[in-house]
Amino acid sequence: MSRKKKKSPKLIVVTGGVLSGLGKGIAAASIGKLLSANLKVVPIKCDGYLNTDPGTMNPVEHGEVYVQDDGGEVDMDFGHYERFIGVDTKFDWNITMGKVFKEILEKERAGDYLGKTVQFIPHVTDMIKEKIYNTLETEQADLGLLEIGGTVGDLENQFYIEAVRQLKFEFGPENIIFIHLTYVPVPNGVNEQKSKPTQMSVKSLQQFGIEPDIIIGRCSEYLTPKIKEKIALFCNLEPSDVISGVDVECIYEIPLIYEQEGLVETLHKKLNIYSPPKINAWRNRVNVLLKNIKNPSKTIDIAIAGKYTELEDSYASVVESITHSAANNDVKVNVVWLDTDGLETQPKKMAEVLELVDGVIVPGGFGARGIEGKISTITYCRENNIPFLGICYGMQLAVIEYARNVVGIKDANTAEILEDGIDVGTAVIDILPEQKAVTKKGGSMRLGGQDVLIKEGTKAHALYGATSVRQRFRHRYEVNPDYIQQIEDAGLVFSGHASDLRIMQLMELPSHPYFMACQFHPELTSRLETPSPLFYNLVKEAIIFSNKRDK
Ligand code: GLN
What we know:
There is one protein chain. The protein is of the alpha/beta class and 551 residues long. The chain has two domains: 15-278, P-loop containing nucleotide triphosphate hydrolases (Rossmann fold, 3-Layer(aba) Sandwich); 296-550, Rossmann fold (3-Layer(aba) Sandwich), CATH 3.40.50. It has helices at residues 24-35, 59-62, 77-85, 97-110, 120-138, 158-171, 196-207, 225-234, 254-260, 263-271, 280-294, 316-329, 347-354, 371-383, 393-407, 459-464, 484-489, 533-550; strands at 10-16, 41-47, 66-67, 73-74, 94-96, 143-148, 176-183, 214-219, 242-246, 299-306, 332-339, 359-362, 388-391, 412-414, 426-431, 446-454, 468-475, 477-479, 493-497, 504-508, 515-518. The longest helix is centred in the N-terminal third of the chain and has 19 residues, at 120-138. It is globular and about 70 Å long. The mean pLDDT is 94. The structure holds glutamine. Residues 364-366, 392-393, 416, 474-477 line the site of glutamine. The site of glutamine has 10 residues, from strand 17.
């Protein structure tokens, strides 16, 4: 299959070798950052698994589920793409084998392949290419940035590799390049950068008919001219095509390092494009972060209280949002992980942690496990004036906490725990009416971007400086409208709601220095240069809290 395109976009394909976990997503996002000043860059990620999307996967297994404005639930690399490149990505930009096979099997049943044997090649590879072409064409992209998940040689990603090999001929060599991210170890005792793993990995890429045009060598130190020459020699490249992917203290440094390593010029030359990076504001924030890592003017501690704390990637966007707010407040923030599972039965342990922190975030979550520990944490923050931000489930649990301990609805709870067979009591958090009939779990929550109307005169209004903001959602439950009046009469303010006025989307406690919560996920749209106001002000209030305590 080959196709004439109206506009001829360029394509950069990013693959990984040697090891997983080298930061291919961040490498791709950094490349996008460096080229996006004059070009419309469209990142596409190919995942080998058979789920349609990661929406139903446990975050501890797969990391955070990133939610897009169009309601897509996608791989967490899309968080990196959005934060680095500054684009709103779309569901179709995440190609999964689940999506590919589903469409092929539907086409087969519909008779679209009548008379033909449906095969991995050409039908699977054609479907992959079709999805890539469609996205580039729909978006009128100047540059596609295609990341292939996993490591070269993985069976489940083989068809993506074969598809991009075919694309080389369809695009023409001047319009497509392959960037391979590898690992350059410096073994203990040997104390020398070693190229062999890179050579082996490039060999296996060559076996599939792909020659890398650029190699990024992840290493604990900058690659020496000698190792660059050696890698270049073995891989048919110029030494300037070998880029140091040196370990960094903060991921936002990576585009700056690639730029310094000459990657922009190399990309301009190889793809015949011109898009010099505009990264001054970015660089300033990075400099603040680096200064605060080495020599902080002030350090504060913020706890993230959740049940997926065993894998920090489960809360990736929350952690990044804290970093954005740290950079913009010129402060170092230590993240303290607080596992809430069973915490309500260990008040001493909880107090030991919370006594020392300057702010607390209760992020999103699902199910009964860990919620009583979160509720106890929220009580502690409310009673001790600790700056608090509740996100999604964190807002629902803050409402339950207030209902139980201030309003006097002792058995207040969320209808969600019924799914775990637990008696609900009074459901101050109830299922969204339109969710009642939903039986299928995949892609069926209230998902994606929605307007949040903000009440004038509230703290939320002051923080956002607007009466309407667009934010992203991912939930099935809401504040039960039957209890809103009663809760508000007791002092809690619902300061933001959906445009039909029913769903409560922001809440605050005016008697507390900073007790804010939202039904949406502000962490998904926070950026290094423009942090989310809810996070920015949490950090700001945490600084004030800490200064007061230090006196
Ligand atoms: N479990 C809650 C709901 O479905 C909150 C979801 C979340 O925190 N993302 O409404």
